Amino acid sequence: MADNQNIGINIGTCLFVAAAAPATYDKAGFDALTWIEVGEVTDFGEVGGERSVSTHIPVKTGEVNKRGGSIDYGQMAVTYGKDLTDVGQIALDAAVTANTTHSVKILDADGVNYEAFTTIVTSFKTARGDASAIIGGTSNFDITAKPTYFSVA
């Protein structure tokens, strides 16, 4: 079996947040934002769209007719080691209170590609766990526009 060099691991991947939506939803728009890195991220969760399926069942036939419905770009739950001095985590906490659209950038470990999207930050929680656990946190992002990949260069 061949080793696929096109896949990678997350070591070195970074999360950034900006307190605004881009003026345009392209590379130039996202690059123009002021980004703050969120420190101590341990899990990025999932990002991507999911299409609903609309159905229609005529009584005469009882057959289910299906059509592709709307696309929901979902939610992303990010976990991190809680650091009360981390400016990125402070920004996430402020984002929940602000209740405005923010932008997110996930810079791949290669430092070449990033994924960007707009979101509403819906939570900033502390997770204490058991006696041996690192005090952590979770922030949930409700994604408002299709995540898009860009190249840094």
Extract low-pLDDT stretches: none
Report the principal-axis shape.
Answer: globular
Mean pLDDT over the residues: 94
Q: Name the structural class.
A: mainly beta
Sketch the topology as an H/E string, one letter per element: EHEEEEEHEEEE
What level of helicity do the residues show? 10-25%
- Major sheet attributes: 8 strands, antiparallel
Radius of gyration: 19 Å
- Number of helical elements: 2
Strand content: 35-45%
Number of strands: 10
First-to-last CA distance:
33 Å
What does this structure look like?
The structure is a single chain. The protein is mainly β. It contains two helices and ten strands. The chain has helices spanning 27-31, 87-98, and strands at 14-18, 36-38, 41-43, 50-56, 65-72, 75-81, 102-107, 113-127, 136-143, 148-151. Strands 1, 2, 3, 6, 7, 8, 9 and 10 form an eight-stranded antiparallel sheet that branches. The chain has a two-stranded antiparallel ribbon with strand order 4-5. The two termini are 33 Å apart. The mean pLDDT is 94.
